[in-house]
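Regression test case RT-17, inverse folding.

Input:
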């Protein structure tokens, strides 16, 4: 199996990107690389990313979009770029590291030990012994959203929107990225819907998608997710249902 590349979409993250945490991680883990996608940032994000790349060109790379295209397209473009390198696993991670980077190695272990699994999704489950700190309103909005998504998809998913996901590179997964997403925010759900449509069965989706309860997750100040986004997501959900399901 080839190396792992994790895409990190960045839009005006100059003051939020925890550079030191990325550097510390790659100093310990040498099989995982990061591809940062500068999504047309208007602050000094690109300069920060260039400095990070210069510190370790083997571990960090940059893909630049000329103008802001939104998280969905930034992630898609980044994944397509990552696939060009022959990676065995690719994924995406939120730049603020609400999900700690150590979870990547846990996701890789799942894919290594369970050959039937093709997608690993982080799940923010508030279990005893775990540190999951979410804004209460966003938590309940998220639960409502995940419930609706599960009903429409016909596949029970606890947490569709956690920004920590890893995929096994397969012809099927590559095909899912050929066309731009029709959604801007809930492309995670759209990926599942595309997979169901391509395979024409929900049973396989249930067997190859694995939700991994996170040991730690924390809300980070400055998130671009607002209650308005949840309202927009409702309309995007309808669009997904009409297009794929």
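Golden output:
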């Amino acid at each position: 199996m080839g190396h792992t590349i994790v895409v990190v979409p960045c839009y005006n993250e100059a003051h939020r990107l925890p550079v030191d945490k990325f550097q510390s991680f790659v100093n310990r883990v040498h099989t995982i690389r990061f591809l940062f996608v500068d999504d047309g940032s208007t602050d000094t994000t690109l300069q920060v990313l260039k400095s990070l790349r210069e510190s370790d060109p083997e571990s960090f790379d940059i893909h630049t979009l000329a103008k802001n295209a939104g998280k969905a397209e930034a992630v898609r473009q980044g994944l397509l770029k990552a696939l060009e390198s022959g990676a065995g696993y690719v994924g995406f991670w939120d730049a603020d590291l609400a999900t700690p980077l150590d979870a990547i190695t846990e996701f890789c272990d799942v894919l290594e030990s369970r050959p039937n699994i093709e997608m690993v999704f982080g799940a923010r489950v508030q279990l005893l012994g775990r540190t999951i700190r979410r804004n209460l309103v966003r938590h309940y909005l998220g639960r409502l959203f995940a419930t609706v998504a599960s009903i429409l998809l016909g596949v029970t998913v606890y947490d569709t929107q956690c920004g920590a996901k890893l995929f096994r590179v397969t012809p099927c997964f590559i095909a899912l990225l050929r066309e731009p997403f029709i959604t801007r925010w809930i492309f995670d759900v759209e990926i599942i819907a595309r997979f169901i449509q391509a395979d024409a069965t929900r049973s396989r989706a249930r067997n190859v998608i694995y939700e991994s309860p996170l040991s730690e997750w924390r809300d980070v100040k400055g998130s671009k997710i607002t209650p308005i986004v949840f309202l927009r997501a409702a309309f995007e959900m309808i669009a997904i249902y009409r297009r794929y399901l």
